[in-house]
Amino acid sequence: MTDTLDQFSGPLDIRVSRRLAGLMREELPAAIDEVDAEIRRTVPEYDRPADSAYGRILRVGVEQLLTAFVDQVAGDGPGLAERDETCRALGHFEAIEGRSLDLLQAAYRTAFHVCYRRTAAVAEREGVPGGQLTGLVEAMIVYMDEAVAASRVGHREALKHADLHHREVRRELLRTLLQQPPASAEAVEELARDAAWWPLPEVATAVAVAPGAPVTRSALDGDVLVDLDDGEPRLLVPGPFTPARAAMLGAALEEADSVLGLTLPLGRVAHSLRWATRLLALAREGVVPSGPLIPCEEHLTTLWLLSDTVLADEMARRHLAPLADLTAGHRRKLTATLTEWVTTRGTAVDIAESLRVHPQTVRYRLRQLDHYLGDSLGDPKTRFALDVTLRAAALMHDDDPSATRAERDPGSRKRGTK
User: Which residues form the signal peptide (predicted)?
Assistant: First the structure.
């Protein structure tokens, strides 16, 4: 069986009256808007922002398909070659995205139902003869079948050109490059040879992607290694990270919470992914703003301070143990003052301005801190440890790092937590 359209469809030879053609053209802009909206509602995978790659593809596809149908039945269209090319491109796009044609066929059915409903309403309102309406609906069915057939051709052609073996080998190469401890150079080189001669770069950049986040695979460069089926989806961009690479990732991940790792020598790129994955987790916890392609490079201190949040929490409570018996409100005020003093080394006036209190209040709190913490504030090592732990607490939005577990979670005693 050859991949041609003739075997799938019959001729679209209906012609409507000039009056009905005019009515259809008047309805066309509103019909396009409704079909676009209804497809987004019924096919969630296509419900992306209008200015995204998916949104633009959907809009252009709907406009071209509906306009071509009206032109054809009105008898003044340029033919269906452009329609067929659009449908083949849509099928090709679905294949590259790793999907079957089920979603696209669902979108076609939605478009048919919307157009049928609107056409029937216009026909009833304008008194169009029933015979004309019946012929028009039959033409819609033929037109939809032809669109599906053309999409199937594009989908099949894309799968033919996609070397599935090399795709799997590249996925395995990616996993090997990112594993810890590192794989042997011989194992990496052998996989690279099998992966359609993927040239081993000197440096590479890992990208961590939130599970289930939308990724436009067709926007990715051909040499980007991809594994989106893993529990922790990731990409690897070989070579120096250029503005062109940034634009490419921006198009592919414009709607996906993701983190851009550091560009590192290939033998150390697993660390790039490790840090990117950690920063993605911090973004999802609200420590740093979430969004597409959060750059690791701008959050290195945060990554370092929160590399072990349990340890940071324990350090803070140990260093601030003398404050543990104070009331929570009093302790928070002293901790806020201590944080400003340790991290800024400012004067009482500077600290007061930052905390929006009177300088005399700051002086009083500093005397209390000196009373509770004693000589430890004069020790450079202790001050450094306090600086680090209090900064970590601030990143975790913890304004009372020395609180006991019961104070942090009053329900813990009821649950039997010791």
Answer: none
- Nearest alpha-carbon partner for 365 in 341, 392, 344, 391: 341
* DSSP-derived secondary structure for 169-226: HHHHHHHHHH-SSPPPHHHHHHHHHHTTS-PPPSEEEEEEE-TT----GGGS-TT-EE
Query: Is CATH 3.40.1350 the classification given to domain 309-412?
Result: no
Bridge partners of 263, per DSSP, are 205
Give residue 220's Cα distance to chain centre. 14
- Residue 240 backbone dihedrals phi, psi, to 5 degrees: -60, 145
% of residues, the chain, pLDDT over 70: 88
Under the banding of pLDDT at 50, 70 and 90, the label for residue 283 is: very high
CATH of domain 18-161: 1.10.490
* Range with the largest mean pLDDT of 42-56, 114-128, 174-188, 290-304: 290-304
Contact 77, 67 (CB under 8 A): no
- The residues pairing with 238 across neighbouring beta strands, listed in sequence order, are 204
- Which sequence spans correspond to the domains of the chain? 18-161, 165-303, 309-412
Which class for 135: exposed (0-12), middle (13-18), buried (19 or more C-beta within 10 A)?
A: middle
pLDDT (mean) for 113-132: 87
233 close to 227: Cβ distance less than 8 angstroms = yes
Calpha distance 411→417 (Å, rounded): 9
Is the separation of the CB atoms in 255 and 52 below 8 Å? yes
Please, are residues 280 and 294 in contact by the beta-carbon 8 Å criterion? yes
Q: How far apart are CA 146 and CA 83, in angstroms?
A: 9
CA dist 246 and 29 (Å) reads 36
Using CA atoms, how far residue 309 sits from 37, 272, 278, 305, in Å, is 45, 20, 12, 8
Whether 413 has a pLDDT exceeding 60, the answer reads: no
**Would you call 35 exposed, middle or buried from its count of C-beta atoms within 10 A (0-12, 13-18, 19+)?**
buried
For the record, the structure tokens of 359 come out as 């300088």
Give the C-alpha separation, 70 to 96, whole Å: 30
The predicted model scores a pTM of 0.59
For residues 269 and 249, what is the distance between their CA atoms, to the nearest angstrom?
18
Q: How many residues does the chain have?
A: 418
pLDDT confidence of 14, banded at 50, 70, 90?
low
* Under 8 Å between Cβ of 43 and 103: yes
